Amino acid sequence: MTRAAWLATGLACVTLGCSVDGITGGGEGGIWTAGLSTHAVTVGTRNRSYAVRVPPRRLLRASVPVAWPLVIVLHGSAGDAGAIEQMSAMDSLADANLFLVAYPNGTGGEFNLYPPDWNAGTCCGGAYRDNVDDLGFITALIAQMSAKVPVDPRRVYVAGFSAGGRLAYHAGCQLSAPIAAIGGVSGSLVDDACVPTKGVPLFAVHGTDDPEVAFDEPAPPPIGVVPLLAGNLPPAVQYWTALNKCTAGTNLTVSLSVVRTVFTACPNGEVQFYAVRGGSHGWPGGPVDPGSQPPMNELKASVLMWQFFNRKVR
Q: Considering the domain 3-310 in this protein, what is its CATH number?
């Protein structure tokens, strides 16, 4: 959609009294059974919406149902819940592995005059300029879901693509208490006050030839010492290795174009990073281009992310 169309929609909402979420909005469906449904929550004076995928059955331990892990997946700039749901293909993974997935919708600022985005600290778009409370949205989403379905409070994870990856980092910085781990795909760190109250493990993926969010996009100066092995990784990942007090790590070429760097000697949480050499701006291994095309399709980002998350408990 063009910026002019977005402006027209936003002005119509001002005139006609649309929901604050505008065209990214959705009502509270009240349906929390298996499958995909749309829900809404109020954050301050703003109505926010998100989609939820509920697995077809509960995980059992000793024949007793246990609470589901929750993975929150954030879309990129100008995207929405449906776009990241399709791009990540997380639904089928959630159904097979029995975890909940939430896909929040961003905003275009106060009156949705711009494409949907996130306030990730010092970025991005109308959401940042109008100081939209996206951290409050994530907090409210977790609380509402926990009141409606059995959510394991020790296994809540936040992941995102591009601008959504920036918000995932921001959530790791500012909401570390309820979050067991974060994941960033083609994201970066734009939080100048990133000092989590506890360590947060990180899973990250980035293409070296990303034209939208550069592989070497600057991040705030690291707090602490960046391990030598992280010296050629994205600045956001370098920051996190220092933050988590990582020391030793290992490199492994896992395919023709993919190199994995893992830091497990980290008192504040493991850091795992995948570089896709020649990779572009997309969700590697997903069904949407360029994630479905070489060299991005050499890596199944969603599968690896869930495997990482599944080992992390707050």
A: 3.40.50.1820
